[in-house]
Design a protein that fits this description.
Layout: H1 3-26, H2 29-44, H3 54-78, H4 99-109, H5 111-117, H6 122-134, H7 138-145, H8 149-165, H9 171-190, H10 193-199, E1 205-208, E2 219-222, H11 224-230, E3 241-246, E4 249-254
Antiparallel strand pairs: 1-2, 3-4
Helix pairs in contact: 1-2, 1-3, 2-3, 3-6, 3-7, 6-7, 6-8, 7-8, 9-10, 10-11
């Protein structure tokens, strides 16, 4: 067996664990796949003979990749989707992204946990996820975030307190949110707007940015009846729409042409 084949086999043995690390760091199945793929690219270009602990090396690399993604995420999301040379919302992930799979992954981790993790700094998130979820020692975490082991321990402790202090999302609330999303989809497809309106708060607000809305400008609708009517605006694009998680909550992704 040549070295490249051996490396690929060893990598595949760890792929599920690496994806779990990346998903808990990033909260996105598609971004987790990107991080795992980048880890493989770095491994394939590395001197395998110089790696003493391959499992630890892979964990370190995927954590560094995720940390970089977290640090640049805010800047990247501020770029308009239609800007020349701007990021492709799906890009290379178009063939692998599965909103239903992402929903299942998020539910297995816990929606409340994902929402809380999203409020942590990148360093806090890395320290907490690697230590508390994957038992990585602080001595190994510290170099990743350019801190001392004691400082890494402090970051994890701070993150742990915030996670423990978070109120769990009631299952009834999650179920109702899914019900509203499904009703919006049904109204767009079949025109049953009254069923949607009965589920909505009278003062509900719908916001859509210009990439998702039917108009060149961002869209803002106020009131249950206006939002109900707004579902008709999505009728043309509903065949490109499927359920997904949006910032950890049930929502819809409209992707004409798969993007």
């Amino acid at each position: 067996m040549d070295e490249s084949t051996w490396l690929l086999e060893r990598f595949e043995e760890d792929r599920t664990r690496l994806r779990a690390v990346a998903y808990r760091m990033l909260g996105s199945a598609s971004e987790a796949d990107d991080a795992v793929q980048e880890t493989w690219l770095r491994l394939s270009g590395a001197d395998a003979g110089a790696i003493e602990n391959l499992r630890g090396w892979l964990t370190t690399v995927v954590a560094r990749v995720c940390l970089n993604m977290l640090r640049t995420r805010a800047t990247r999301r501020e770029e308009p989707l239609d800007a020349p040379g701007g990021p492709d919302p799906a890009g290379a992930r178009a063939e692998t992204y599965d909103p239903q799979e992402e929903t299942l992954l998020a539910e297995s981790v816990g929606l409340a946990l994902l929402v809380v993790l999203d409020t942590l700094t990148p360093a806090e998130r890395l320290a907490f996820v690697l230590h508390d979820m994957f038992a990585v020692p602080f001595d190994e975490i510290a170099p990743l975030i350019e801190r001392t082991p004691a400082a890494a321990r402090q970051l994890a402790s701070r993150a742990r307190r915030r996670v423990k202090g978070a109120s769990p999302v009631p299952e009834a609330d999650l179920a109702r949110r899914r019900q509203v999303v499904e009703a919006f989809l049904a109204a767009s497809r079949g025109g049953d707007f009254e069923a949607l309106v009965t589920l909505l708060d009278a003062d509900v607000i719908l916001r859509a940015d210009r990439a998702a809305g039917p108009t060149p400008a961002p869209l803002l609708l106020r009131g249950a009846h206006q939002v109900g009517k707004g579902a008709s605006m999505a009728a043309e694009r509903v065949r490109f729409t499927q359920p997904a998680l949006v910032n950890g909550w049930p929502g819809l992704v409209m992707a004409p042409g798969g993007r």
